[in-house]
Amino acid sequence: MSAIITHAQAKLEVVGGETFDWGRVKPPASGHLDAEIRMKNVGDAPLKITDVHPGCGCTKTDPDKLELAPGEVSTMQVQLSVFPSLVGSVRKNIEVSWIDATSSDTSEKKTTIWLTAFMYRVLVVHPMPFINFVNLQVGTESESIVLVENNSDEDIKLYDWFTDNGITCNYRDAVILKSKEKLELVAKLTPKKVGGFTGMVKVKTSHPDLPILELPAYGTAR
User: Fold this and answer.
1) What is the predicted pLDDT for the residue at 93?
2) Cα distance between residue 91 and residue 89, in whole Å
3) What total of structural domains would you count in the chain?
4) What is the extent of the structural domain holding 165?
5) What is the pLDDT of residue 173?
6) pLDDT at 91
7) Which listed residue, of 66, 202, 217, 221, carries a Cα 20 to 30 Å from 129's Cα?
């Protein structure tokens, strides 16, 4: 009867599964979502984490442990950047490379951690969440149009419109933006001098999740 010889092996697993899902979330004031990721050596040999590579839009801190004995856990903090235009499903990844610390096989193994979320915004601005004045000419009126969409399930009141630096818009009085409908916002500007321009259009809203909608304005006058 022949004996069966087994060799100890390391194995890295993500505690709770390889996908971290924030679910449906509102845009955080910090501009990013935070998570704590725990990785465990579930094998019976030591392992060493050799590299942690975040995908685009992700940042991470170094794991608190790079060398894990069997049963040990390494923890790292990760962040997912939330850009102003980000709406809907988000999926990013972090790739963790590791080796079996006692094996003669020094090739790296890889574990992929997925970060997912569904970004929900009450008001969505199209095509981008800012006002872009193109081809500005000193002394000549220019306009820029954006669409403000009510993404919520209730009507929203927009009131107390504010503009600065010579910008005007086609709304002064309060307006009710019905659920799932869009409002065309026309901003106009007659630049007085050559060079870069920045300004702002603001409006208060009746929705508690977004008391003020701010639309920065940019352009370059010639």
Assistant:
1) 93
2) 7
3) 2
4) 123-221
5) 96
6) 92
7) 221
Rounded to an integer, what distance in angstroms lies between the CA atom of residue 165 and that of residue 75? 49
Can you point out the beta strands (E) in the chain? 12-14, 19-25, 32-41, 47-54, 58-60, 67-68, 73-81, 88-100, 109-119, 123-126, 131-136, 142-150, 156-163, 168-169, 175-177, 182-189, 195-205, 212-221
The contacts of residue 95 (CB under 8 Å, 6+ apart) are: 51, 52, 53, 55, 110, 111, 112, 113
Measured in residues, the chain has a length of 222
What one-letter code names the amino acid at 87? Answer: V
Q: Are residues 176 and 164 in the same domain?
A: yes
Residue showing tokens 């069997």: 70
Q: Which two tokens mark 124? A: 């969505």
Confidence (pLDDT) at 55: 85
pTM of the model: 0.73
CATH of the domain at 175: 2.60.40.10
CB atoms within 10 A of CB 10: 22
- Within a domain: residue 5? no
What does pLDDT average to in each consecutive run of 10 residues of the chain (222 residues)? Answer: 63 95 88 94 95 85 92 95 82 94 87 93 92 95 96 96 96 96 97 95 95 95 94
Distance CA 130, CA 216 (A): 5
Residues 69-93 as b/e (b if ≥16 CB within 10 A, e otherwise) read ebeeebebebbbebeeebbeebebb
Residue that finishes a domain, picked among 119, 149, 164 = 119
